[in-house]
Amino acid sequence: xxxxxxxxxxxxxxxxxxxxxxxxxxxxxxxxxxxxxxxxxxxxxxxxxxxxxxxxxxxxxxxxxxxxxxxxxxxxxxxxxxxxxxxxxxxxxxxxxxxxxxxxxxxxxxxxxxxxxxxxxxxxxxxxxxxxxxxxxxxxxxxxxxxxxxxxxxxxxxxxxxxxxxxxxxxxxxxxxxxxxxxxxxxxxxxxxxxxxxxxxxxxxxxxxxxxxxxxxxxxxxxxxxx
Length: 227
Fold this sequence. Notes:
By secondary structure, the chain is an alpha/beta fold. The protein has helices at about 25-35, 50, 65-75, 90-100, 115, 150-155, 170-185, 205-210, and strands spanning about 55-60, 80-85, 105-110, 125-130, 160-170, 190-195, 215-220.
C-alpha cells in the first residue's frame, strides 16, 4: 500500500461520492460484481491469473462512467482491461456492459488505485490509462493529484519497460504538472501528444468541450526499470 506522510494515511486523490443505484443497476451490480471483480487489496497478483496470456493488458485508473472501457473491450477482444474506480455507479455501468455484450476480457476493481497497484506484479501491465483525473486546481489541494512526484514510481511500477502511460485532461496546468512529475522520475521517454483513435468522447470530455476547454492527450513510454 502507498501511504501518505500524515499519520500513515493514504492521501486521497479523489472526492468521495456515494450515490445510490437505481433498482435496475443495483440488481446488475449485486448479480455480477463477484464474478467480474478483483479485490483491491491482497496477495501479489498477476493479470494472467484471470486473463491468461492476453495480447495487451491495460489498467485504467479512474474509469468514470465506464463508457470507454466497454467500447474498447468490444473492439479489442484479444486485449484485457482492468478498470479501477472508487465510485460504484461507474463500476455498475461496466458490469452492465459486460453482460450486454458478452465481454470476458474486462475486470473491475472497486477501490483506490494507490492500494491496488501495490498488489500488481512488476512488469505485468502493458498500458496504464489516466483519463480526465480530478485536476484539484487549488494550490492547497495539489498534493492530492494522482500524477505527482511521490506517486509516479509506485503507480507505474506494474508497467513493463516499453509499456505506455496515457493521460487525457482538459486542464493545461495538470498536463504540465504531470509531465514534470513523470519526467522527474527518470523512467519515461519524452512525452508525445497523441490522441488514440479508439478513445471515444466521454461525458466528461463533452462537458469540457461545451464549456470551451480543449483536451490534451499525451503518452509516455517506459524506458527504465525500477532500481
